[in-house]
Every structure is written in C-alpha cells, then in structure tokens.
C-alpha cells in the first residue's frame, strides 16, 4: 500500500492523533473541521497508560510532561460523610505495571500539542469551517461534499475517509448506522478553579472521586498543577442543549447540599459552570468499504471509566498500524480494524455504564461496594483494569 489520500473528518483529540500518525506513515491527509477556531473552556481529561504510551510513541511525551499532572492515587470518598472509602494506585504504580504514566491534562493543552504537531506536517491540509454534508463510498475511491458558512461547496475525492466527528457524527450514516445516540439520564457539570482556591485537603496531587446515590464528583489538578478540574454528575430526566450550556452554580450546590463540608466548599468556588448531557450509542459498524469511524463517532462512551479520549487515541493508532506499506486494500484494512476493535470498545462501553450504577449505589448495595473497594486495596483496584491499561496497538 503506497501513500494514500485520506480525509479525516473532525479535528478533536482522535482526529488530530489520526491525522498526525497517518501523515508520519507517508499518507496525504486532509483534516476537516466544522469549527472556525479551537477553543476548550474548563475541560480536563485523563490519559491512562493505554493512551499515554501511544502519544509518547508519537514523540509528544516531552511536551505533555510540561503541562500534564501525574496524580499519585485516586482517593474515593463518600459524598455525604466525606470519609475515605478506598484508593486506586496511580503514579509510580502505573508506570511500573504498564510502562507508561497515568496523566491528567487540560484538553486545550493536549489539543494545542497535537495541533502544533499536525501543522508541522507538510502532508496534512487542515480545512476549518467546513461542514460535511454528504459522504459516498465507491469501489475505487470515496468522496465527501462539504460546505462553508457562506454556502460554498466543495467535493473531495480520496482513497479513504475516517469519521472522527463525535457523538453526532455526519459520517456514521455512511457505514449504515443512522440511529441517533441515546440520552443516558445524566448531565455533567464542569468547571476549573485556581488550585489555591480549593480546600487544602483536596488540593494535593491526587484525583478525588466522591460517590453518592444522586450523583458523583471527580476532581484533579491540570495545567501543570495550576488549576483544578471539577466534574459533577447529576441524574436528570431531561438533557440540556449543546455541549457548553451555562449552569447556575447555586443549583448544583443545592443538589449537593448534604455533601461533606470540603466538597461543598470546592463546588462553591468556580465562577462559571458549563453543562452537557451524556449520550452514548451502541458500537455496531465501525467501518464499511472505504469509510471508517473512530472515537465517539464509532462508540461514544460514558465518562465513568475516563476512556473517551483514550479509546479515540487507540483507534487512531490501530488504523495507522493497518494502513501500512505492503498492506492489502483499504477495504481489507478497515474490515480488519473493525474486527480488532469491536469487542474491546463494547467492553469499555459496558464497564462505563456499570460504573455509573456502582458509583450511585445506596444503602446495603453501597455498603457492599465499599467493602469490596477496601478489600482490594489500591493495587488491587488498579489491577482490576489491567486488561484496559496494557493495550498496545498491533504492529
């Protein structure tokens, strides 16, 4: 397989990673993004070893170490009492066990690092402000039609199309899956605050996970430790509109009014909250012909296992490993990709949904959950996900 002309639709974390990896493999990539600029406000993400290993292999390790934080542990607490339930070993334990770090990072920092690397590749053409309207497969080539805000249209013909355009993917119907994503009954609130404003007991180099029957809260340091990222999950019968709907902090504080004092203090600090609804979609067809999907376009996953970005990075690495010189036709490579990824992404989706149920247990079920967490201990809790963190793309 000589160098291909490949269109990647969507310049999020997965699309940027795919474009970079494919260009370094010798392919000519057109990266298409509907936004006219890049902006990520108040968002952090977790890069477990299955993802950090791939990014390091792409030569991004030094840049990431300058902006990422490496928490020593996850401390699990009860929302109501504030008492510690247990811990998950991170930090040195993750490095020893899986050969790569468990980083937490501001999404904008990771995006900037990837974007700088993409822009340094002469074989990547980045098109901003284009909305993909139609995707067509063919026996010899595939094509897509895109439009600008002014209505100008352009048709691009390529050897392969990769849809990395998120939960509401415009590419997904082209592989035969037009069903919309399903709202899963949760709204997430996100914010950042200066680390100095966080309660001293919650401002260390660790991730906090607070469990309760009405929702849960996660927080961890980002931006090289200068900020704390906070995500609070609220059960909700109705979704909110958009990905960054403003939220009234007083409403969230009322929802967690019975929380332990330290958590209430933390939730009272942010000046701005943004909300988004949690959707997922059963992983079904990941590729068809010359069209493949990755990340949330292929298998949106609830954030209760912190694997959304990691799975997209895995997908990008797997696709690149299959689109190599000497490989078979594009259709064969994409079929192999779908076969390699489907069981794994379905398992991750299922584990994330299960975590949502476990995090929100009450009464005797919560008592039993807490007993299991304590019995396993920090290393045992880490080891539960060895199958997840030890992933390496096929070579």
UniProtKB/TrEMBL annotation:
Entry keyword set: FAD, Flavoprotein, Monooxygenase, Oxidoreductase
Domain FAD-binding: 6-348
Co-factor(s): FAD
Source species, domain of life: Bacteria
Gene Ontology MF: a single term: monooxygenase activity
UniProt name for this protein: FAD-dependent monooxygenase
């Amino acid at each position: 397989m000589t160098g291909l002309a490949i269109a990647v639709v969507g310049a999020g974390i997965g699309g940027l990673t795919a474009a970079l990896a494919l260009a370094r493999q010798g392919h000519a990539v057109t990266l298409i993004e509907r936004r006219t600029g890049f902006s990520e406000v108040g968002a952090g993400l977790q890069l477990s070893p299955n993802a950090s290993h791939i990014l390091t292999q792409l030569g991004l390790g030094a840049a990431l170490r300058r902006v990422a934080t490496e928490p020593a542990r996850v401390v699990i607490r009860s929302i109501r009492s504030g008492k510690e339930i247990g811990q998950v070993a991170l930090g040195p334990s993750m490095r020893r066990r899986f050969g790569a770090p468990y980083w937490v990072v501001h999404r904008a920092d990771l995006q900037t690092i990837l974007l700088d690397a993409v822009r340094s590749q002469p074989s990547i053409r980045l098109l901003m402000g284009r909305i993909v309207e139609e995707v067509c497969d063919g026996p010899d080539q595939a094509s897509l039609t895109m439009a600008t805000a002014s209505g100008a249209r352009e048709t691009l013909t390529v050897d392969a199309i990769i849809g990395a355009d998120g939960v509401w993917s415009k590419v997904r119907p082209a592989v035969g899956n037009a069903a919309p994503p399903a709202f899963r009954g949760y709204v997430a609130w996100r914010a950042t605050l200066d680390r100095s404003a966080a309660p001293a007991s919650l401002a260390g180099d660790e991730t906090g996970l607070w469990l309760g029957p009405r929702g849960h809260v996660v927080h961890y340091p980002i931006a090289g430790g200068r900020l704390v990222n906070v995500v609070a999950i609220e059960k909700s019968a109705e979704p909110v509109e958009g990905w960054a709907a403003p939220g009234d902090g007083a409403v969230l504080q009322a929802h967690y009014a019975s929380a332990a004092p330290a958590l209430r203090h933390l939730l009272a600090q942010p000046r701005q909250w943004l909300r988004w609804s949690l959707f997922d979609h059963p992983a079904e067809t990941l590729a068809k012909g010359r069209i493949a999907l990755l990340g949330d376009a292929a298998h949106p996953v609830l954030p209760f296992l912190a694997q959304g970005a990691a799975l997209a990075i895995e997908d990008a690495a797997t696709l690149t490993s299959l689109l190599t010189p000497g490989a078979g036709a594009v259709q064969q490579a994409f079929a192999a990709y779908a076969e390699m990824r489907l069981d794994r992404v379905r398992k991750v989706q299922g584990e994330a949904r299960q975590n949502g149920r476990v995090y929100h247990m009450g009464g005797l079920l919560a008592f039993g959950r807490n007993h299991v967490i304590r019995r396993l201990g920090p290393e045992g809790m880490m080891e539960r996900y060895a199958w997840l963190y030890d992933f390496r793309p096929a070579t």
